[in-house]
Amino acid sequence: MIWWGGAAPDLERLTRLGDGSMNEFLGIVFTDIGEDWLRASMPVAPRVLQPYGRLHGGASVALAETVGSVAAGLVVDPGSFAVVGMEINANHIRPAHDGFVHATAKAESLGRTTQIWTIRIENDQNKLVCLSRFTVAVIALNRK
User: Fold this and answer.
1) 65 catalytic, yes or no?
2) Domain that holds residue 93
3) Exactly one of 24, 35, 65, 87 is catalytic; which is it?
4) Is a pLDDT exceeding 70 seen at residue 54?
5) Are 74 and 106 in contact (CB under 8 A)?
6) % helix, strand, coil for the chain, step of 5
7) What is the DSSP string of 60-81?
8) What is the pLDDT of residue 136?
């Protein structure tokens, strides 16, 4: 298991970390966790649609960065390191109009100073909506 301390974190606690932030506004909820992956869901509601009634690409990227950032933070000692996004890209594969989208962040590389995560966003029918790659910097808190 890659999670700091060797145990999977509480998903409800991860969701509550977003209270009062964009996570809460978008309706992001952490739903499942595995040995090297973390999953969150977001409703495809009017607040995340573009004017043509489809899931806004920016909402997909916000979901991808949220699940990737939280996952990245869960694999380092929080007393010694912070993680920050360096780069994210997204390929929008198919539209989503309703229901939920489910983002799964999977670790590709967990280096000393850099992490790389792949985030697959799928609809309720398990069809790929968006594929994202997220690069994270690991920064020592005592760094000047």
Assistant:
1) yes
2) 4-81+88-140
3) 65
4) yes
5) no
6) 25, 40, 35
7) HHHHHHHHHHHHHHTTS-TTTE
8) 98
